[in-house]
Amino acid sequence: MLALITGAVDDRSARGIAAAVSRLVTAGQLPAGTRLPTVRDVARELGVSPTTVSEAWRSLTRAGAIQTRGRSGTFVAVPVLPRQRWRYSQLGDPVAAVSQDLSTGVPDHDLLPDLTDALKRIGDGRLTTSYLDAPVLPGLETVLRERWPFPPERMTVVDGALDAHDRVIGEVVRFGDHVVVENPAFPPLLDLLQTVGATVVGVPMDAYGMRPDRLHGVLADYPAVAVFLQPRAHNPTGVSMTGTRAAELASVLRGFPDLLVVEDDHAGDIATAPPVSLGAFLPSRTVHVASFSKSHGPDLRLAAVGGPARVIAAVADRRLLGPGWSSRLLQGVLLDLLTDPVAVAGINKARSLYASRRASLLTALHDRGVTATAADGINLWMAVDDQQIAMVALAAHGIAVSPGAPFCVTPLDSDHVRVTAGLVASDVEGLADVLASAALLETRGSGPRTRPHPRGWR
């Protein structure tokens, strides 16, 4: 047993030792109930300190992979993750009384399409005659394939973008695996990766998305299994990739043929940037998620997932043991909304209004010396001198925003908050005054002054 464990370790750090043991457990070479060698024995064979092995054991224990039974020793266990406070739960403060909640990251209800006519048009709702029907309505799949940024081998529909991420992660990521994400990244994605014990590595961004040079450096240092991207309307920065940047990233990834790309097109039809995907260059290795929550309604609970059959088939098959399929009644509503000229015109209008709101607030903040980005989508990423002080100051004015820290894999060069600019339909100048006062410590009580542009997330 000792030789099996030490022979599997190629990285003698605590993280590397934990990952090696996890792989043995996943492969069945260390079955549940197996008694592990002592910390001192493993440390002696590997030539590392007992502290290093103890740290690895603690990581595995926290993930539920092993358990200590006092003097009886340490044993392989069925993974059971402990409860913890997720990053997602830190984005808002449900206790605080606010008059303007800009922390939510949700679309404006008044800009969502009216479902009344769509519900009438789909008839009596008898869209399913068997539990064995295809998970996607044929008509909806046809429309989705026409809209897809590359030809997917297979497609299915799940209950929203986060459900898609959860299911894809469950199929391709194991404890100790390295996973690459943008920095900053969407907090729920980081939470999902944490639940499976993945080691998350963040790659800096610029105005065009994830930086190819930094991605190459990270992949050269870490044997990652997947990279997660938001190709447009990045949450929280609003950045959208260009076709050129997608090609540059794909060029880097060609040197790492075992790595899967997972894309989250969460803004969908309210994004102003055109659809872009690494799947245009790496179709056999790209899973693309297209959500309709922000554009057509969160309560539709629908996202399409398309890409290589080996991944999508595994996701669809696993769902048969749970929900089986996403409501075909709701799929019928979505199909109607995607093809009805009135609904399409309404979505186009919403996209223009969101763009106008972002631009107005962004311009007003820049005029006051505040550094912020809001190129696409519904969010604005604002640099602040001190996150906590800014949030307290805004709360005193009845305004809630999201703290930037939960979005960050590693700290950025300055503090940030996320503002849901898509909900700001009036009094932009007044709001900008309050946001600027909260963002810039040196302006309080003396009027706004321009400060140097921080590097921020760039």
Automatic annotation (TrEMBL):
The keyword Transcription regulation applies. This is Aminotransferase class I/II-fold pyridoxal phosphate-dependent enzyme. The lineage of its organism: Bacteria, Bacillati, Actinomycetota, Actinomycetes, Micromonosporales. GO terms for molecular function: transaminase activity. In the C-terminal section; belongs to the class-I pyridoxal-phosphate-dependent aminotransferase family. InterPro entries: Aminotransferase_I/II_large (IPR004839), HTH_trans_reg/aminotransferase (IPR051446), PyrdxlP-dep_Trfase (IPR015424), PyrdxlP-dep_Trfase_major (IPR015421), Tscrpt_reg_HTH_GntR (IPR000524), WH-like_DNA-bd_sf (IPR036388), WH_DNA-bd_sf (IPR036390). It comes from Paractinoplanes bogorensis. It holds the Pfam family GntR. It comes from the Bacteria. Gene3D superfamilies: Type I PLP-dependent aspartate aminotransferase-like (Major domain) (3.40.640.10), Winged helix-like DNA-binding domain superfamily/Winged helix DNA-binding domain (1.10.10.10). PROSITE patterns: HTH_GNTR. Residues 11-79 form the HTH gntR-type domain. The keyword Isomerase does not apply. Keywords: Aminotransferase, DNA-binding, Pyridoxal phosphate, Transcription, Transcription regulation, Transferase.
